[in-house]
Specification:
The complex is a heterodimer of chains A (144) and B (159). With 144 residues, chain A is α+β, with helices and mostly antiparallel strands. Helices cover 31% and strands 43% of the residues of chain A. In chain A, the strands form two sheets. Chain A has a six-stranded mixed β-sheet. Chain A is globular. Chain B is of the alpha+beta class. Chain B contains three helices and six strands, in the order ααββαββββ. A six-stranded mixed β-sheet of chain B has the order 2-1-6-5-4-3, covered by helices on one side. In chain B, a hairpin with a 2-residue loop joins strand 5 and strand 6. The two termini of chain B are 23 Å apart. The chains are: A alpha+beta (144), B alpha+beta (159).
Chain lengths: 144, 159
């Protein structure tokens, strides 16, 4: 097989792996498996998320993320993330992209909706989230 | 006819690119970024809005008409928050067709707090980049817009 074709197939494989990484995140999160979620991130990762209008929380490193998620998503079924609108751009061992999320959480009368802006890195164990930031569409709009 | 490995890879790449084109449409629509939405269409595109009470659709031709149409309908952030599912794509060389479903928890349509919709899509590849050449939007909810005389298949082809 010529090198160009191999490269194009590898790019398709990378994209599929990254979409599946997002799916695995949804799987572990639905089960309240904080360690499982944290295992999808690089050791020196960054996670950022909403904490109310105008307030954000930033967590660095996989170990701290596991502890944080142990509080935030420890109850199975409290969030059931469905992911949509995948966008991925791969460059070598780095990638970036976005996707939308509906976690099936009601906030008052509004369905929570959001989107992730991500940077990913390829490590020995495969693609991992290196920098993942969650923003909300609902119940309040955070546009990036 | 034998399909080469290169053609199969091209078909997969096109499938990915077309789904991502729809995702980008959603990204820009949520932000009311209508000029970026319009840039996803061919110059001579055609967009058909949902059926109105009079049984007719808004028919928008070309990027020039599309910009004011979208500015008026979804030109502010958060007027629509589209999530796309059920992608179907059929690629033939530099042309493609397809369908997909869309839900939005908010709606710019009067009297419709939320939307569940579907699109018929046609695409063209120009200089190695895919664009929408045709989009027709119809509703599932709040009003079921199914045409009993529909002339298109699930993969968006005209039958």
């Amino acid at each position: 097989m010529d090198a160009d074709l191999e490269q194009r197939i590898a790019a398709l494989e990378d994209r599929r792996a990254i979409e599946e990484l997002r799916s695995r995140y949804g799987w572990y999160a639905a089960r309240g498996d904080a360690a499982g979620v944290a295992s999808l991130f690089t050791v020196d990762c960054l996670f950022e998320g909403p904490e109310g209008p105008g307030r954000r929380v930033t967590v660095r490193t996989r170990a701290r993320l596991a502890a944080y998620l142990g509080q935030a998503i420890s109850k199975p079924g409290s969030a059931i993330p469905f992911l949509y609108n995948h966008i991925v751009t791969v460059q070598g061992d780095r990638a970036e992209g976005s996707c939308a999320i509906k976690p099936h959480i009601m906030v008052g009368e509004k369905q929570m909706l959001g989107y992730y802006v991500e940077k990913l890195a390829r490590r020995d164990e495969g693609w991992l989230f290196d920098d993942r930031r969650l923003y909300l569409y609902q119940p309040y709009l955070e546009l990036k | 006819m034998t399909i080469t490995l290169a053609q199969r890879v091209d078909a997969l790449e096109s499938d990915v690119a077309l789904k991502e084109l729809r995702s980008k449409y959603c990204w820009f629509a949520a932000r009311g970024d209508v000029s970026s939405i319009v840039a996803l269409f061919t110059q001579d595109c055609r967009f058909e809005g949902p059926l109105r009470e009079n049984g007719r659709r808004d028919v928008i031709k070309g990027r020039g008409e599309l910009l004011p149409y979208f500015t008026q309908s979804i030109g502010k952030p958060g007027l629509v928050l589209p999530l796309i599912v059920n992608h179907v794509v059929s690629v033939r060389g530099d042309d493609a067709t397809g369908t997909c479903a869309m839900e939005s928890a908010v709606s710019p349509l009067p009297g419709a707090p939320a939307l569940i919709c579907y699109y018929y899509d046609e695409f063209k590849r120009i200089d190695a980049k895919w664009y929408f050449s045709y989009r027709q939007l119809s509703l599932y909810r709040p009003q079921l817009q199914l045409d009993p005389n529909e002339k298109r298949s699930v993969d968006g082809r005209i039958m």
